Amino acid sequence: MKGHPDLPTCFSRRRLLAATVAAPMLNLGMFRAHAASERRYSRRAMDVVKASLVIDMLAPLKLDFREEYVAGRIPDADARDFRASGITGFHNAVGIGGPDAQKQVMGWFAAWSGFAARNSDLFTLVDKAADLDRAKRDGKAAMILGIQNAEHFGKPEDVKLFHRLGQRVSQLTYNSQTLIGSGSTDRVDGGVSDFGASIIKAMNEVGMLVDVSHCGDRTTLDAIQLSARPIAITHSNARALVNHPRTKTDEAIKALGARGGVMGITGVRMFVRDKDPTNIGHIVDHIDHVAKLIGIEHVGIGSDADLNGYDDMPPDQYKALKASYKDSYAFREKIDIDGFDHPLKTFDLAEELIRRGYSDANISAVLGGNFRRLLASTWGG
Q1: Strands 209-211 and 30-32
Q2: Which helix (H) or strand (E) element contains residue 6?
Q3: Is it the case that residue 94 has pLDDT exceeding 50?
Q4: Is the pLDDT of residue 18 over 60?
Q5: What b/e string do you get for 190-216 counting C-beta neighbours within 10 Å, with b at 16 or more?
Q6: 3-state secondary structure of 90
Q7: Which residues 6+ apart lie within 8 Å of 58 measured at CB?
Q8: Which of 283, 286, 319, 369 can bridge 365 by disulfide, Cβ–Cβ 3.0-4.6 Å?
Q9: DSSP per-residue string spanning 13-69
Q10: In angstroms, how far is CA 140 from the centroid of its own chain?
Q11: What's the angle, vertex CA 237, arms to CA 148 and CA 193, rounded to 5?
């Protein structure tokens, strides 16, 4: 089968062990994901999501940036969606930069830490990887504090400060040049600077995950080689399938895998396919590609959206978001893709992985097991 991740040419010892786990037959009976939902899924899809520690390695909790949302209690409908989603780990991060980046980042962390405290019946913050396991057992959503940039690190010592404030992941750059390195939409990529190398070293020392999702090609490769610890591409796709500046070359993907990193596949429409229709099957094309290239143990999910997606944002914010990026981002009418734009999207993804012949063990690895392993190696626990 085209794109099948379990072909013998893909095997490592770890993958061979996973593949020996017998996959149950697809139960053709369809069941509601929860009592209030009209969406129906196979028993196998529901069981594998329920059994898995699902981690979305780029998942802003709410794509609505009005202050009153984060300052209050979560609405009942949103709380229901979080509980039903099947997702435990949410990497809650946005791009923050500029001359007042430190102040803005401190405000971001303070606001969301307060949100978690006010809604502690549903949310918990993450320090070590074991906190994800505990959240899964307790039926809570685990909030991973991160930033999609590193301009708030004015000096290497700042990395330790922000780690103490709860930050566990940091992109090195967003889309543009900084003192650290180049972004994905820069005309010229000079790679990681000497200062950037010192920031990576400081992140390694405190146990903060290095993320290069928005970095330029040279900066991406430099960071993979400079980091003493495995790093992540938390949310990107394969340039071999779609030629976009935010996707990653096979060279970068191979280098990441060789150093033990994990790549999260995203559901942003123009990163998935360069024409319509664009649906959940095309996301799995990217999962297939990375799995065949570097192994199933190096691929995960970073949706790059909240539970409902970008197309449900308040219209004024949606318009401003699109206007804030360079033309090379090539936005189409919709940002989300068909079948991955609602709170139960993880179940739809599981169904597509089942349809393509993935074993339950490999589905669980993609949904979160691979990132859990990487996070444990970085954070401890």
Answers
A1: unpaired
A2: none
A3: yes
A4: no
A5: ebbbebbbbbbebbbebbbbbbbbbbb
A6: strand
A7: 91, 93, 148, 213, 234, 235, 264, 266, 302, 303, 304
A8: 369
A9: HHHHHHHTSPPPPPP--EEESSTT---EEEHHHHHHHHHS--EESS--S-S---HHH
A10: 18
A11: 45
The mean predicted confidence, pLDDT, of the chain is 91
Read off the tokens for 149: 């940039």
What are the φ and ψ backbone dihedral angles of 248, each rounded to 5 degrees? -115, 140
Confidence of residue 36 (pLDDT cuts 50, 70, 90): low
| pLDDT value of residue 65 | 87
Question: 35 pLDDT band (50/70/90 cuts)?
Answer: low
- Reduced to 3 states, what is the DSSP secondary structure of residue 270? helix
Q: What is the pLDDT of residue 10?
A: 35
Tell me the average pLDDT across 367-381.
96
Q: How far is CA 41 from CA 93, 114, 198, in A?
A: 30, 36, 48
Report the topology of domain 8-379: TIM Barrel (3.20.20)
CB–CB of 208/164 below 8 Å? no
SS3 content of the chain, % helix, strand, coil (to 5): 45, 10, 45
Q: Are 178 and 151 in contact (CB under 8 A)?
A: yes
**pLDDT at 33 (0 to 100):** 66
Say how many C-beta atoms besides its own lie within 10 A of residue 121's C-beta: 12
Tokens of 273: 């396919």
- Residue 90: phi, psi to the nearest 5? -120, 115
SS3 73: coil
DSSP E strands: which ranges in 165-238?
A: 169-171, 209-211, 232-236
Stretch (H or E) spanning 354: helix 345-355
- Tokens for 346, please give them: 């993880």
Per-residue CA distances from 325 to 174, 186, 331, 337 (Å): 11, 12, 9, 19
Least confident residue range of 19-28, 244-253, 314-323: 19-28
Residue 264: phi, psi to the nearest 5? Answer: -90, 130
Locus of tokens 């650290």: 180
